[in-house]
Design brief:
single chain, 281 residues, alpha/beta, Rossmann fold, 2 domains, 4-stranded parallel beta sheet, 8 helices, globular
Length: 281
């Protein structure tokens, strides 16, 4: 077993540049004969975004397992050491192959697409509310319940080879009486895509919808997601996506919809094609 450092930042400072560097290095290791699995340590704040980015861009079936901790090593009952121990056990487990990017947290094995952080301080902060756990890891003994049901890793169409920069995608959190001019400001400041964290089923105020339509006419791709933690945003539900030119996020949270849209924009700007990616990944 060996280690190397890709970056040393708090996960609140995770960036596109680090994502690209990390994904490219993981792809190199996927093709290395003496590597059976890989563990990535990461802070909890943006772990779910990094995990999903890697889930879409790592081209191989060798396990990639992320480990994090809610408590520092100096705390009573620090959770980091056991999470790391379990992550290594999962990465070395042949049964973990082909399950996409996994996360070891508090004895649970989460999939990158399903995981979300649900508490600011709770050790059991990570949950997979829609699709459930991939499995559990109890002191290095692993049991698996399912495989991810959407396209990922070795079957993914996305590649970061030769990519030096990702398109700008902004997330706008929709509220009652939302300031619709924030949509115009995002367009004016160079956003190539916008994700709305809408109310309910991805809904928004009438003024916001008009601003979104203006953005779509300027070739900015707008994806409707929801600020609600559970459920899916359905196409042509609440908002007529066909008329507005928007894309429905499905089960993806606003943060993960932003990740997918960044990668999709490297391939196409057509809303119909983009909807197909959101229905498949």
């Amino acid at each position: 077993m060996r280690g190397e450092q890709i970056a040393n930042v708090g996960s609140q400072d995770m960036s596109d540049a680090i994502w690209l560097t990390l994904a490219k290095r993981l792809n190199e290791l996927q093709g290395t004969g003496d590597v059976d699995g890989i563990v990535v340590t990461h802070g909890t704040d943006t772990l779910e975004e990094t995990a999903y980015f890697l889930h879409l861009t790592v081209r191989g079936d060798k396990p990639v397992v992320m480990a994090a901790a809610m408590r520092p090593s100096t705390a009573l009952s620090a959770d980091g050491p056991l999470n790391l121990f379990n992550a290594v056990a999962i990465a070395a487990d042949p049964e973990a192959r082909g399950r996409g990017v996994l996360i070891a947290a508090n004895d649970d094995i989460h999939g990158a697409r399903a995981i979300t952080k649900t508490s600011t301080t709770d050790v059991q902060t990570f949950r997979s509310p829609e699709r459930g756990l991939i499995g559990v890891s109890l002191y290095g003994k692993n049991r698996y319940f399912r495989v991810p049901y959407r396209t990922h890793t070795s079957a993914s169409e996305f590649s970061v080879e030769g990519v030096e920069k990702l398109p700008r995608v902004d997330v706008l959190y929709v509220t009652a009486d939302f300031s619709a001019d924030l949509v115009d400001a995002a367009v004016r400041n160079g956003a190539r895509g916008i994700v709305t964290a809408g109310v309910g089923n991805g809904n928004m105020t009438a003024a916001t919808l008009e601003a979104v339509k203006r953005a779509c006419k300027k070739d900015v791709v707008v994806v409707r997601a929801s600020r609600v933690m559970g459920g899916a945003v359905g196409r042509n539900v609440e908002v007529n996506d066909d008329e507005a030119g928007t894309v429905a996020s499905g089960e993806l949270s606003p943060a993960k919809a932003r990740v997918l849209l960044k990668l999709v924009l490297l391939k196409t700007r057509d809303p119909a094609e983009i909807q197909g990616y959101f229905d498949s990944y």
